[in-house]
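Notes from the 1:1 (GR / supervisor)

We went over the backlog. Supervisor wanted to see one worked example end to end before approving the batch request, so GR pasted a single chain during the call. The sequence is below; no edits were made to it. Supervisor asked that the structure be written out right there so they could see what the output format looks like.
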Amino acid sequence: MRLVSERIRYKRVVIKISGEAFQGKLPHGIDPDFCIRLAQDIKKLWNRKIEISLVLGGGNIFRGRIHSEHFEMDRAVADYMGMLATILNGLALQNALEKIGVPTRVLTAIQMPQVAEPYIRRRAIRHLEKGRVVIFVAGTGNPYFTTDTAASLRALEIGADAVFKATKVDGVYSADPLKNKKARLFKKLKYIEVLNKNLKIMDPTAITLCMDNKIPIIVFNLNKKDNLYKAVMGKNIGTIIC
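Structure output shown during the call:
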């Protein structure tokens, strides 16, 4: 049963999930336990009638930039291979969501009609209005653009209220908290501060797109219990960039 809450802060959202998150506890590939847990977290939000879309990375299977740099692979070819990896993650998450009763559509920027719908902006919006979770895969469909940029672009196209960047740390820090114990957590930042301080939480193109169109970015730790639900419901966790 889908519930309505008076405390919903964000009606329509884009959630960016990295490919690395899909590894879970595995050295590579897709961890079924992670997909199940993520699907359950998404269902909690879906039950609140929040219009949910996701942009997925593919680094758990293939990371274009690394292969381009270290294996002398043409960058465009490597990026296209990375886009295909995001489609695998999208299908895995769709399966996990459908099994618990959440209607889902996978929309791909690279046409693959046998397995996913082609990305069409108006179709994506219509799916959201009908209460379906939309999974955007294959990035922007173009090489040299990250899935972070794809998340910002899709947020603009569908009129999302915010972009949620799921990470393995509690928010944006002054330095890598996994390497520097003195790193300071920022609770709130301006877009320009992220760019000027070169805080590598998202690529500059993604930040600039959100800055120019005044879409807030919320960075939070996906690995903590109920953090996804709390972040999208507007609880004071992580870092907000606005």
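Supervisor's comment: The CA atoms of residues 81 and 99 lie 28 Å apart.
Batch request approved.
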